[in-house]
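To fix ideas, we quote verbatim a fold written out as tokens:
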Amino acid sequence: MYDKKELTRKDFIKAGASVVTGVAISAGAVTAAKLSPAPEDPTGPETIRNYDDFETVPVNDESDLLIRMQNDLKRALSKPMEERKWKMSIDTTKCVGCHACTVACNAENKLPPGVVYRPVLEEEIGEYPNTQLRYFPRPCMQCDKPSCVSVCPVNATWKRPDGIVSIDYDKCIGCRYCLSACPYGARTSDFGHYYTEGTPELQPYEQRPNNEYGKSWLREDHESPIGNARKCHFCLHRLDEGQLPQCVTTCIGRATIFGDANDPDSLVSEMEQKSNQIKLLEEKGTKPQVTYFI
């Protein structure tokens, strides 16, 4: 039962405003602290980073899956590339179909029109009138036996020791054989378009270079990656900096799990023990390394 001395609507709004103001001030203080200039890196940009310098969140603070995955990532990066194997699991029971991962991926990789690394596919399940939609975010499957590699006539695509299928934009001739060979439609071609083309001028955000495969690409004068095949690479440029893939950090339902499958203590290895998992088009023999839980 409510107390007889209830707040009026005006009092309630004033009280709520005070709380919001207090939160805003606290958030502002935290933001200001985070925006403080960091000290210069004495090692220089060309020196290999010591991943022991990355801060580890206390184990007792791992209630959030992102924190646990961040700690898993730190352990993985302390090993040689040959000893780790990146893997992704997607829990469709948690995915709400918000497409935030798609938008975040496009922004992170500065993708042009027609190039999408992580679309979200929809499946209707049940029988009318009791039907519902199930969502399948579809990154590159990073297959153990990728069909895209064998069809490339110039060896521009290959599988790294850590399991990620990569593309050498300088070698790619844009024949698009790999697009036809991929049974998942995970590869698209960059035809050099811009979202703001046809307007008085291209916007600066579209002309910024993207950072893929350890290099900065300007997309000028029809040079690479224009004309190349492009695909998801688990945000290699972020992994090299000790950060999780953008789609993982953006997922509001924590539906995307990422980590080192060679680490038995990682969250992604723990998820692999569950029975309600499937892989897309296993009959194609590509051995996809992205798992779905249904």
